[in-house]
Fold Putative AraC family transcriptional regulator.
Amino acid sequence: MKLIPVRQIAKTPTLPGTTGRFRIRDLQHVLNGKDLAQDHHKHDFIFVLAVQQGNGHHEIDFKSYEVHNNVVFILRPGQVHQLRLTAGSTGFLMEFDLSFYQPPKKALYKNHCTMEPVQFEKLHTHLVTIAEEFTHREESYQEAIKARLDLFFIDYIRQSPNPSAIADTGNNYQQEQFEALAALLEANISNLKTVSEYADLLNLSSYQLNAITKASVGKTVSEMINDQIILEAKRQLLATPNQVKDIAGHLGYEDASYFVRFFKKQTGQSPEAFRKNSK
């Protein structure tokens, strides 16, 4: 069973007593005058791509986006993506793990945002300052970076013209529980597939949990479970050469034929047809 490649942040010098990993790079240095073409993979860190000028294509968990001027992409750990960038693109690529800095949850569920030039410039200014702090590494530079990250994510949420994937209901408890469920689904979908199991993990009743998901995204918990199974199946089908029976086993299905029927019912095509049609 081949696993989806997981990339990690390259080791960077750290000061005694500091935790976590962080780095930020100018896109022109990353590209070095060449086109960038990355196959499907995922990260164990937060990935922020801010393109000031450029072209390309970005696929995040099988949603396709065109890369163009004044666009920002933010990926959570575990999301699968494929990136194409043309030589000469400008902007920044920033990477950090959650032990270094934890962004607002609302920002992490907004993978993509296209901005007006004035809006983007404000974010770009924060990134320039962060890059300078990271390069010079003067006293307390990590604290300065985290302070600028606070401002970056505030402006990302505030200036974005695109609605969040999660409805802003004003209910912080509801949003926290929904995000906790999303994280549990990502981590446990191969082993846990019932509403009651996730409700127990969150110390809620199935009724309470269903009320939260219906208010947040208009779906039942069962629908979210099914969505997560299909998402992980698609990740495996497109990012690995694994056979369908092995993918079924990875997702906790002893009967591969049952998994095939389930996948077809949810998507309208068999796993093999999805793989072939998506190439």
